[in-house]
Amino acid sequence: MSFPTEISASPSHRFKEARWAAWPEACRRLAWWALDNFHLVLTAILAAVLLPALHWLGLPLRFNWTGLIKAYWVNLTLQSIFAALLLSLVSDGQLLRPWWKRHQQQKARLGILFVLFLVECLFLGASTALFLSVVMVTIVEFLERERGIARQKALDVAIPAAYLFLGFFVMFGYNDVIAAIRFYGAYDAFFNRIDSGILFGTTVSEIAHAALRVLPSWAYQVLEFFYYGMFAQVGAGLLISALCLGRKTALRFAGTILVAYYLALALFFLWPSQGPFYLCARHFSEFPQRLQTYAYQKIFLENVQQLWEHRAISRISTDYYIAFPCMHIAQPLIVAWFLRHRKRMLAILLSYDVIMVAAILLLEWHYAVDLIGGVVVAAVAVLTVNNLPRRQQQGCGELSLDNAVSISGESESSA
Predict the structure, then answer these.
(1) Closest Cα partner for 179 from 306, 307, 51?
(2) 298-349: per-residue pLDDT in tens?
(3) Does residue 122 belong to any structural domain of this protein?
(4) Which of 5, 9, 281, 414 is 20 to 30 A off residue 316, Cα-Cα?
């Protein structure tokens, strides 16, 4: 009688061996996915820790949902569509030709648009009516040109926009958490001294008040327009990235913006500061009180003082207390990087940003060193999220009217 020298494995045993053998490969794939989507993982971790942190500090677990929904999904969305259209018209001068030809053949449409414009003028004023009419025409034109895939295109925009929206709530939550445990103006004098060295003995406040004596009042309204218009620039960047380069690129765009904000939170924890308006003794006595900036700065100081003194607050607001680094320069640089292959767009964006730098300083929002910090944060966020050493970047295609969409005017290509 002979016995087998090897015992054959049962089917169930072979299945278990195969399953365990697959674990290292599955772990490697998960690790690569986490690295490639670092911004998603980081956002999820921060979101999970936020609620316990708020509870521990006795801060409310309520957010200003209504305020941010209105500001983000209504106001910013409309402004972003308008800004994206303007950038696309600069990039593609022929963008309006198909629209004009179609409406010449269907002149009734022009009549309807004109009547709607007049009605809007009666109730909203000429400038608001013109703005809303342009946005409405842009949306309708997009739906007509992208008939059949408009729903897919809309999702390509909506999903990254929703991700950015939720990330903003995480950022605002930690903004209040840090303000409650770190004195908000601890490093203002330090940054002011650094500015004195950078600016050859003067400071941002001294420059701003010297300009206040010579600039006309309307100039400050222009400066505010450029300062607060930065948010529409970011929204336009997301729209163009989603419609021209696809959902994955738009998610990376949103992720890069959020990682930049997370870096800003870390720096705020280390070196909290408010900006030149906080240190300047003459700011609120000499600064034009009719401007939005005057009211915002007073409200921010009152609210951050309330957090530091641990006085009860009703909800987490959308106030932003971080001076260093300057996210008003970091975000436009991120937009410029994602749209860097569109030369005309890039030229317009950078020209806008030069004027915005003047607005940042003359409105006394940031120190000069904050601008340098913003540049560094933007570079680190871009390198971290987009994995430049590892990800093989592909160039963007040339502009093509054949594949243009109404609010981008540029061809589909991979990022």
Answers:
(1) 307
(2) 999 999 999 999 988 888 888 899 999 999 999 999 999 999 999 999 999 9
(3) no
(4) 281
Spatial CA neighbour of 351 closest among 226, 218, 224: 226
Closest-CA residue to 410 (of 154, 93, 10): 93
Collapse the DSSP code of 63 into the 3-class scheme (helix H, G, I; strand E, B; otherwise coil) and give the result: strand
pLDDT of residue 406: 39
Closest CA to 370 of 294, 378, 404: 378
In a domain, 100, yes or no: no
Query: Cis ω on the peptide bond leading into residue 332 (within 30° of 0)?
Result: no
SS (H, E, C) 23-35: HHHHHHHHHHHHH
In a domain, 232, yes or no: yes
Q: Could you give the C-alpha distances from 155 to 36, 41, 75, 380, in angstroms and in order?
A: 22, 22, 19, 29
325: cis peptide before it, omega within 30°?
Answer: yes
**Which pTM does this prediction carry?**
0.86
| Confidence at 397, pLDDT banded by 50, 70, 90 | very low
Most distant CA pair in the chain: distance in Å? Answer: 111
CA distances from 407 to 71, 81, 94, 159 (A): 21, 7, 13, 18
Has residue 415 got a pLDDT over 70?
no
pLDDT, tens digit (0-9, with 9 covering 90-100), for 351-372: 999 999 999 999 999 999 999 9
Torsion angle in degrees (nearest 10) through CA of 368, 372, 378, 384? -150
Q: How much is the average pLDDT of 69-87?
A: 93
* Helix (H/G/I), strand (E/B), else coil: 182: coil
Which residue from 323, 353, 126, 108 is spatially nearest to 229, judged by alpha carbons? 353
Residue 361 CA to residue 203 CA, distance in Å, equals 10
- pLDDT value at residue 150: 83
A 10 A CB-CB count for 366 gives 29
In which domain, by residue range, is 359 found? 62-95+146-386
14 assigned to some structural domain = no
CB atoms within 10 A of CB 81: 23
Quote the number of domains for the chain. Answer: 1
Burial of 55 (0-12, 13-18, 19+ CB in 10 A): exposed
